[in-house]
């Protein structure tokens, strides 16, 4: 059995761009932590054939799915269905941590 921590002990930060911390992955899904410093973002993009869920664990950020943008905080989640444009912007003054699930993972 593989056990992973996803609390503050697993968080990682990069000054130049958001940090992706892989937790679990298979050919059917991945689960990562996205760690964003204030001012960092994930540019809007889309994946054909893949659904993505963002679950906010720490901080606040602006999430885009389709044409809708909304600020989310701890305990809130949003899903981008296959083909929907989605992205994250940490426009707050605090760090943002997002548990990110995608199924299936995009082909490389």
Describe this structure in words.
The chain is mostly beta strands. It has one domain (17-103): Jelly Rolls, CATH 2.60.120. The chain has no helices and 9 strands. It has strands spanning 19-25, 30-36, 41-45, 51-58, 61-65, 68-72, 77-80, 86-89, 96-103. A 5-stranded antiparallel sheet has the order 1-2-9-4-7, with no helix packed on it. It has a 4-stranded antiparallel sheet with strand order 3-8-5-6, with no helix packed on it. Strand 5 (61-65) and strand 6 form a beta hairpin. The N and C termini lie far apart (27 Å). The mean pLDDT is 97.
Give the secondary structure arrangement, pairings included.
Layout: E1 19-25, E2 30-36, E3 41-45, E4 51-58, E5 61-65, E6 68-72, E7 77-80, E8 86-89, E9 96-103
Output the keywords.
0% helix; Jelly Rolls; 108 residues
First-residue to last-residue Cα separation: 27 Å
What's the CATH H-level homologous superfamily?
A: Jelly Rolls
Radius of gyration: 13 Å
Order the strands across the largest sheet as they lie in space: 1-2-9-4-7
CATH third-tier fold name: Jelly Rolls
Classified by CATH, the class is Mainly Beta
> What is the H/E string?
EEEEEEEEE
Would you kindly provide a brief summary of this structure?
The protein is mainly β. The chain has no helices and nine strands.
């Amino acid at each position: 059995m593989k056990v992973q921590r996803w609390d503050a002990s697993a968080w990682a930060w990069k000054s130049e761009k958001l940090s992706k911390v892989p937790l679990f992955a298979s050919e059917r899904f991945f689960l990562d932590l996205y760690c964003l410093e204030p001012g960092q973002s994930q540019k809007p993009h889309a994946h054909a054939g893949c659904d993505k869920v963002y679950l906010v664990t720490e901080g606040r950020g602006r999430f885009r799915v389709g044409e809708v943008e909304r600020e989310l905080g701890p305990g809130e989640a949003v899903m981008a269905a296959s083909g929907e444009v989605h992205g994250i912007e940490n426009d707050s003054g605090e760090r943002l941590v997002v548990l990110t699930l995608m199924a299936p993972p995009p082909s490389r």
